[in-house]
């Protein structure tokens, strides 16, 4: 139920970045900016149906002095569902072959086992069963990649709540004090929720029971 504009680039390749030693780790600062725009169209209006958020897949490659490429790691992250700044560090892994010959080939010749379908990092796109088994798939952890994500959300459903918050905020501004604003706003929200629950409970009661209780009072 997610879509993107026709001109949207859904994949890309960063520049090659030299690593530097930080403590015991070799760190590369790519500083590669990218922009992603996605649209969600809700088909089922039921409250139990929650949208599956988009997933970002990434692959890390290394290039040595002799122009030999090696796969250093795969990883994936689910885009944050809340707006704002998010710093996410995702661990990576790579597939390995059994035996010393495979490691010698990787070290001297270059090249390493790769995934034909990068979605196998999470849930393969061709998977249609109920349980996914990775038994026998040999991997090893390699490192981590840190993403700095700035998320922005727009929705028509936000209009009503934002208008209500603006009205409440205008009242609270006249009261003065930031702490008083937050406490009064929380009390008013709790009062509105309790009032709605009371109205729903009253509507669910039989009419004869309501009239009897009213006459008794």
TrEMBL record:
One of its GO terms (cellular component) is MKS complex. The keyword Cytoplasm applies. InterPro entries: C2_B9-type_dom. It holds the Pfam family B9-C2. The keyword Cytoplasm applies. Keywords: Cell projection, Cilium biogenesis/degradation, Cytoplasm, Cytoskeleton. GO terms for biological process: cilium assembly. It is found in: Cytoplasm, Cytoskeleton, Cilium basal body. PANTHER family: B9 DOMAIN-CONTAINING, TECTONIC-LIKE COMPLEX MEMBER MKS1. This is MKS1 protein. It comes from Fregata magnificens (Magnificent frigatebird). The lineage of its organism: Eukaryota, Metazoa, Chordata, Craniata, Vertebrata.
């Amino acid at each position: 139920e997610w879509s993107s504009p026709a001109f949207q680039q859904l994949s890309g390749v960063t520049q090659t970045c030299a690593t530097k030693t930080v403590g015991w780790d070799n760190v590369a600062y790519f500083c590669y900016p990218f922009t992603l725009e996605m649209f969600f169209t809700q088909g089922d209006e039921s409250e139990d149906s929650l949208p599956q958020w988009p997933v970002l897949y990434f692959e890390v490659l290394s290039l040595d002095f002799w122009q030999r490429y090696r796969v250093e790691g795969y990883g994936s992250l689910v885009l944050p569902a809340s707006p704002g700044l998010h710093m996410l560090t995702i661990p990576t892994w790579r597939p390995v072959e059994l035996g010393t010959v495979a490691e010698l080939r990787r070290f001297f010749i270059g090249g390493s086992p790769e995934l034909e379908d990068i979605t196998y990092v999470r849930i393969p796109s061709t998977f249609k069963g109920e349980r996914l088994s990775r038994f026998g798939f040999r991997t090893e952890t390699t490192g981590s990649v840190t993403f700095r994500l700035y998320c922005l959300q727009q929705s028509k459903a936000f209009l009503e709540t934002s208008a209500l918050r603006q009205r409440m905020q205008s009242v609270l501004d006249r009261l003065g004090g930031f702490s008083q604003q937050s406490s009064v706003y929380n009390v008013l929200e709790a009062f509105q929720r309790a009032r709605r629950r009371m109205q729903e409970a009253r509507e669910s009661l039989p009419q004869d029971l309501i009239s009897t209780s009213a006459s008794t009072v």
